[in-house]
Amino acid sequence: MRCELSAASFEELAEPARVGGGGHDSILASAGRGVGGPRSWPGKCSALLRGSADRDCGITPRHLPRTEPTECGLSTINGRRIPVTKISVTFDSAGIPVAGELYLPDSTVEGASPAIVVGHPGGSVKEQTAGLYAARLAEKGFVTMTFDAAYQGESGGEPRGLEDPAQRVEDLKAAVSHLTTRSEVDADRIGALGICASGGYALTATGSDHRVKAVATVCGVDIARQFRFGADGAQDPAVFQGMLDAAAQARTVAANGDKPDPLILFPDTVAQAAALGGAHGAEGFDYYRTDRAQHPRSARFFDWTSIDKMAIFDAFAAVPLIGQRPTLLIAGTRAVTAWMSVEAFQKAVGPKEIHWIEGASHVDLYDKEQYVGPALERLASFFSGNLR
Hints:
alpha/beta; 9-stranded mixed beta sheet; two-stranded antiparallel ribbon
């Protein structure tokens, strides 16, 4: 499908963020007003939603490294049994122990296999959508690995809940390094797959790491663009400036010996999520905060210093460095974030494809079979053809 864009009109709703030591933080993001298709994305949504703080949030890591992999059979994902083997691993990323899960195909093929590193969305964990894609691709014959980002999930690092773009890129490269040490993996046939925020991170990692031979994204975003401009690209600039004010204040609070309130990712109810973030916000809440896919270690908050780290990050700056290595970008025709896949596509200089999943929103591509299935078929074909 050709990538053609037309102008979209947007309604602006924005209020600067605030933070105070010992007080309740408040982030009012732009609200959603519908979802667009591959030519326009008028849905208004936000990088963040306001809510009450949960200090524990279930993201305390298992700090002791798992030096001996534990092998277990994978029973079901999304109610479906997948005949692959899952092995828990730990590897180092710039001095931080990172917890990962390696998926091995259930096959009798001898010798080393092509491998794919799968990165999770911002605030997610390896057991959610990244684990689903990793397991399903392993079912198709690839060795795959996903992992919790440093500072999140079971991985180490302080402060908890830090979303550091530079570290996230390093995590992906460290995962590639770990794969090169595995006897099951052909080190010359490694690819990268990034979902949501990891789409941007995977593009950056690939641009600067020639060990990655092909890269794909699913509903990929540059998390910095999403925070600066909103998920649909039309956020009032005052919103991010207010968040930078709050991040600076949080640093001052911490420097004076107090613990600043964290930056809350979700409100308390789906109705609040819809009021603040429209359809996109409601779908995110449904995925992360209900029985659909919630996980005790997925992030409920980010550390405020994540914001000023994002301010100077650009996930697409390194895309031209990918050069002639193949790039695949998969996006839903109803995804408000699809403009970022289009921008990355336009920056790629080598073999590239943007593949549309008809009717899918951004979050639909996390776990809904009618959309995940076609995405996986295209991914399997792409990696089979380019990890040879």
